[in-house]
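If you are new to this repository, start here. Below is one unmodified record pulled from the training split, so you can see the exact layout before writing a loader.
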Amino acid sequence: MAAQPANITDISSHASWQSTYQPKLSVSDSATVIESPTSKKPAVAVTTPAGLPLTQVTKASVASSPRRLTQSELYPVRHAFAPQHIAALRLLTVAIGRCEHALAHLKDGQKMKADTEIQKLQVLLPELFCCRSLGDGFGTLVAALSSGLEALNGDTPNQHQIQAFKRVLTLLWEKPFLTADEADSHLPLLESVGLSVYPADLLDFLASD
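And here is the target side for that same chain:
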């Protein structure tokens, strides 16, 4: 029998040739599961890396909060605003300031100064009405404010009426894209403080029928 060459090893006598590979798991990746090559991998959940916020939106969460988004939520970047939208926000900011000044003057007993602020407010309303393409409700509420001031026939509105003006203007600043139905739901606020929300010519026409 011929001698076995020195460079040939009998693999049957060595267990080291058997598969002994053991994959290593890092401490931070404790959720990792090692599967054999022949097994079917189960579906795994995708997680968000640490430090990144994740908002889970479900049908239930949407149904539970059917609120209308404000202009700041819809357009978080000012450069994305349309020119007409920017003009409306600027005018509304000034108009709200006029109401605040008028209320402060009334509190101090300075009715003439309060009336001056209201006159300055009234001048802004035609410009605001030109921004009515933002939404049907926008034009409705601006027209109601104008009618309410005209119905006073030059008299200075009282504290409650000025507060109502301010609330409507603030609503328009926050939600300039109101629908006509949504705007109509806010008209009772002005009527509750003795303000007419319809033009005098329209009321005269309706009264003549």
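Two things worth knowing about this chain: Residues 78-208 form one domain. The two ends are 131 Å apart (CA to CA).
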